[in-house]
Amino acid sequence: MARIAVIGAGMGALAAAARLAVAGHRVAVYERTETYGGGVRRFERDGFGFDTGPGLLHLPAVYRDLFVKTGREPLERCVELSQVDPASRHVFPDGTELALPNASRAGVVAALDAALGAGAGERWSDLISRAGDAWHATRRPLLEEPLRQGSVPERDPYPAVGRRRRPFLRPPRAGTLAETARRELSDPRLTALLESHALAYGLDPREVPAAATVLPYMEQTFGTWYMAGGMRALADALFERCRARGVEFHFGAEVAEVAFDDKRALGIELVDGARVEADTVVSGIDARRLYSELWSPSKAGADWPDEGLLGYGRFAVLLALRGARPADAPHRTVIHAADRAAELAALDGRSGAACVRPTVTVLRPDDVALRPDDGHESVVLSVTVPRHRAADGARRSAGDGHRDWEPDRDGALDWTADGLADHYADQVLAAVDAAGLDLAERMLWREVRTPADLERETGAPGGSVPGPALAGDRGRFLRADNRAPLEGLYLTGGSAHPGGGLAHTGMSGALVAGLITEGPDWRGSQ
User: What is the pLDDT of residues 432-474, one digit of tens each?
Assistant: First the structure.
């Protein structure tokens, strides 16, 4: 029985802790805040409840496997899980509306043809078929196995089309997701539909490889799911599973550093000076924080691991509304930006503080647990935005109007600047009402959540939301290896392999548990 210290109580850390406890290890979790779940949180006020992190689940099989492997009660006995149908409703700038059925390829084709015109469904279906090829080529090495040198294709696995190929030459490069959309979809609405999947994960469609088409493939193939009580119910169930398996939890216990000698990790030291000895240390915090604050690879003579790109942040407006939720209101509506180029330019800081009419995701769960009664409704509006970075003193004291609303040279914004968050929330709400949802007139109150809040609560640098790992582009979009350069130190969570998102984070916990219990040569569950 090994002593295992886990840093942080995010979803990846909880997933690893539960599996390791079942394997017979003594597991203790040290979390600097007073709660668990990482970014999977709930805000409550006046009988209203809101998910402040992810609001939907894809690939529920990841958590079904976790609950089966760690106890007798399957996932469905611990949470009430249901499919969302339609999976999403889309409102485009030209007024076109599109409702996509859940996990029905034929239904999606029919819906696209009806809304966008004959042939739209076929073009989308052909792209999703090629995305399926990329999925099957990379699913095991990218998602189900620990990273190994050369195991994940550095060349984009998405099969490029529409380019002439000469004999004996290498296959044509697929390009970025945005380039693929323009080449294969030939409709700005289909392009917006495809690119919105990347944006939802905090990824830039102009930068990510065409392999990012696996994101809509995953959703369309495995469905979109919701849990009664919100996604926080999943964190609650996983926390209780850990406790039932004997995992110890220490809240308000911030880790200052990883203790080590010249060979391996020896435990952790808390900010209050307490030393916790351990045979193995699992870090569930952001890889950038681990390697910059708790332990530096240079101490072991190793290079700084490539933990992937710093993603965008998430801005949310939580709305408490008077009046009943309309019976025909979709669970999820995506309102697409009127000017996608301006939206993307705002994300990387080239056009001022924020896009006036961004792409907004509206979540309206029909859930009695999230409203005081049937005469009220809770709604979450979410937008992908630049990450947070506090302005320096010179910018704050410049006295130049809203100069502190401007992004810095890296595209980050100071989301704590006076008036910025409320101003942007007004723009988001205006975009929603312009699409005909008319939520502002029903508003009792609103709560605004910015990347600065996420950074404060979870420690994620800049409040950035880590995206899933993607194959291609010479490994640029891979995440930190689950094995640190220091023996006995492992990484789980959204910034570690295989990346962010609820499903990927759960897989990360499974990989770490497998490496610890089965040894460094373990190649994943067969």
Answer: 999 999 999 999 999 999 999 999 999 999 999 999 999 998 8
CA torsion angle 239 40 135 126 (round to 10): 140
Better-predicted residue by pLDDT, 356 or 242: 242
Q: In 10 A of CB 249, how many CB atoms?
A: 18
Cα gap 161→133, rounded to integer Å = 13
Instruction: Give Cα 39 to chain centroid, integer Å.
Output: 9
| Predicted TM-score of the model (pTM) | 0.93
pLDDT tens-digit profile of 311-369? 899 999 999 999 999 999 999 999 999 998 888 888 877 665 556 689 999 999 999 99
What distance separates the 2 farthest-apart alpha carbons in the chain?
68
pLDDT at 193: 97
Q: How far apart are CA 484 and CA 504, in angstroms?
A: 19
What separation in angstroms does the CA of 63 have from each of 129, 200, 430? Answer: 26, 21, 37
CA dist 518 and 17 (Å) reads: 15
pLDDT, one tens digit per residue, over 182-207 is 999 999 999 999 999 999 999 999 99
Give the rounded distance of the alpha carbon of 397 from its chain centre: 35
Count Cα atoms within 13 angstroms, Cβ side, for 210: 24
- β pairing state of 97-100 and 48-51: unpaired
Tell how strand 3-7 and strand 280-283 pair up.
Answer: parallel
Q: Which residue is associated with the tokens 């770490």? A: 512
pLDDT band at 302 (very low <50, low <70, confident <90, very high): low
Name the strand (E) or helix (H) holding 115: helix 105-116
Q: How far apart are CA 96 and CA 78, in angstroms?
A: 40
d(CA 506, CA 117): 39
Q: Which of 422, 479, 447, 474 is nearest to 202 (CA)?
A: 479
- Residue whose token pair is 């949180």: 41
**Residue 169 backbone phi and psi in degrees, to 5:** -100, 160
Axis-axis angle for helices 188-200, 340-347 (nearest 10): 20
Per-residue model confidence (pLDDT) at position 162? 58
Compute the distance between CA of residue 1 and CA of residue 282 in angstroms, rounded to an integer.
16
127, amino acid identity: L
Determine contact, residues 501/7, Cβ cutoff 8 Å: no
Cα–Cα distance, 470 to 479 (Å, whole number): 9
DSSP per residue, 414-449: -TTSTTHHHHHHHHHHHHHHHTT---GGGEEEEEEE
